Amino acid sequence: MNENGCAYEEAVTRSGGAIEGPLAEHVRGCQSCQENAAVAGWMTQLRAQSRPRKGLPTPEMLWLKSRVMQIQDAQLRAVDTIRIVHVIVYGFVGLCWSVFLTWKGSAISQWFGDIRSGHFVSAITGSSPISISFLLMLGALICMTVVATLPAILAEE
Amino acid sequence: MRGRELALDTAVIGNSSETAQTPALISEAHFEQFYRRNSEGLWAYLYRMGGDASLADDVLQKAFYRFLRTPLRSAEEAQLRGLLYKIGTNLMHDHWRSEKREKNWRTAMPGDEPSVPASDSALRNDMQKVFDRLKPQERTLLWMAHVEGADHREVAEVVGVKENSVKVMLFRARAKLGRLLADAGLSPEGKR
Question: Does the distance separating the beta carbons of B44 and A47 come in below 8 Å?
Fold first, then answer.
């Protein structure tokens, strides 16, 4: 049998098995079309037995849900962007702290040593290695840390 | 969101051939008409592909959601229907894949075999059993050609093959179904 079928193949396929007129005459003499017609009839029967038992959702409901889902998707995308910005900010603040602590590590440990041994006055008056710029940098870093973590803390609360 | 129209600017289907360069809009009225014409046919297709009514319900909704978010290349009914059936077919494949994964995972755990609900087995009548013996691609081919009356171009788009191949593939699928029907005694020849 020829796999390319018969010239009437599409007509028989679309007939749904109900073949009349000159097409019926052709089908009687064409084995390929007979098989096609049998399958077409069976497929039509299969379709007839495939009705939903309960009602399908209304188009209005699907439309509305689709709109809601699009809004939710947009919100999720926005939240993702905010999350990425947060990670970058945390990373930057952490990097600043580590640079600061590495750079001024010895001065900080000496400062703590002075405080522990009771030399508060020298620690404050400037005879210790702690300078004003050091204190300003420390203050700025603390501010940055608070600003970076505040939204997360408030969101948790 | 602009008025009563959805901006269809997000491609959500895996296949890049389904994505268009220019996003199109579909109005709510147009969608309603399209839905009323095609929802029952799509449900029947999904039901016969999966053999499960509740699965067909789920996939139908997902298919229309995806359809509403897919850029449309044309407002032509045949193309829209082809796209909808392609989305439905892809979703069924996704379902089978995840089901297979779950099955593999479950069989790895002793004493946790999935149970088949009685209602599902009751739904699988003789016709469904015969249809289930075809490969998913053959089922799609036969359904699109015989039930939806789709031409070869439309069938090719849904199945994801070249248009020239459809005729031969359809011929083979039809021959296979004919044999299965004869074996099951459901064809005119088989009843003789």
Answer: yes
